Amino acid sequence: MAFLKLNRQKLKENYTFLDQLFKERNITWGVVSKLLCGNTIYLKEVLDLGVEEIHDSRIGNLKKIKKLNPDVQTVYIKPPSKLNIPKIIEFADVSFNTEIYTIKMLSEEAKRQNKIHKIVIMIEMGDLREGVLGEDLLQFYQEVFSLPNIKISGIGTNLNCLSGVMPTQDKLIQLSLYKQLIEAKFNIEIPWVSGGTSVAIPLMLKNARPMAVNHFRVGEALFFGKDLFTSETIEGMHNDVFTLYSEIIEITEKPNNPIGELGENVAGNTYEINEDTDLSETSLRAILDVGLLDMQPQYLIPVNPDITIVDASSDMMVIDISDSKKEYKVGDIVTFKLQYMGALYLLNSDYIEKIVE
């Protein structure tokens, strides 16, 4: 049976690296836990690190977090839907918002629950996902800052999440200027300028972060140690907090190309044979007990560099072990490092056991 393993020590070392990085620069930060898909075992591991703030995009996950640690500050990181508002007030201390209509409903529900709900106003900075347009920001702020039971804790933006727009120094300076405009116009203080995510960490390492950007939301860098500008691992961090283990259930020398009339496979793809292909070529293939129900093969990285992933069906994945220096037999375990999306699929699968090393 395939299973996913989290390495506690490597997670702790990544967390310590980031925590020191932020504290040295007087930056507050929270862990983005949506990758964990509400897995209680792994959420507990994160909370045991001493995390004071958790960000997630699923109310059910925030509910679990509050049950594990009622004192941790929970942040709902996408614009709330109308049907979710009672639960958001109950389980999220903070939410990210872009619609006056929604904030008014949050205000009414917070009053009913006798709570003060904090909000961050998200600003559109070019990535074209959620955010208030810059030219509308002052009017937007004016309409919401006096609503009862609502406290505006900051402004923020999301970059590199949809269109791939990078958080350059210029972009973050622009975000800082919005803070100055609001504070000057309304004679108030904006505590958070939440412009930092994993992708902005390289700017901070180069001391290119505008000082006003004082809040980060970090997920991918914590779990994968990745520099999202270069795709390399940040020096001093680990890229293998998660490892997938999958068992070999068949090994056979087989032709490299299918034999017979070809149609679409289970994933909707059609195999094409090149006219110059030598149909007599074969390779030593192994079948693993993990498939498309659990993962996407393009996001898996074999720990053994001599292994090649061929393809996968719903419940099985085929690998080519012809060039492997290590000899495999049925029942052996093959291990994979993961990219972010690879871990996300696996963590969202109930068929993959999750354990801690």
Radius of gyration: 24 Å
Would you tell me the overall average pLDDT? 94
User: What is the element string, with H for helices and E for strands?
Assistant: EHEHEHEHEHEHEHEHEHEEEEEEHE
The CATH homologous superfamily of the largest domain: Alanine racemase
Secondary-structure-derived class: alpha/beta
Which CATH-level-2 architecture of the largest domain? Alpha-Beta Barrel
The tally of domains stands at 2
CATH class of the largest domain: Alpha Beta
Strand-residue fraction? 15-25%
Flag low-confidence runs: none
User: What's the shape?
Assistant: elongated
What is the terminal separation in angstroms?
A: 17 Å
Largest sheet: 8 strands, mixed
**Number of helix segments?**
10
Task: Give a description of the structure.
This protein has helices at 8-23, 40-47, 59-68, 85-91, 100-112, 137-144, 169-186, 201-205, 220-224, 340-347; strands at 3-6, 28-32, 53-56, 73-76, 94-97, 117-122, 150-156, 192-197, 215-218, 242-255, 282-288, 300-302, 308-312, 317-320, 333-338, 353-356. The mean pLDDT is 94. The protein has 357 residues and is α/β, with parallel strands linked by helices. The longest helix is centred in the middle third of the chain and has 18 residues, at 169-186. α4 (85-91) crosses α5 and α6 crosses α7 (169-186). The two termini are 17 Å apart. It has two domains: 8-224, Alanine racemase (TIM Barrel), CATH 3.20.20.10; 242-268 and 279-356, Lyase, Ornithine Decarboxylase, Chain A, domain 1. The chain is elongated. The protein is built from ten helices and 16 strands.
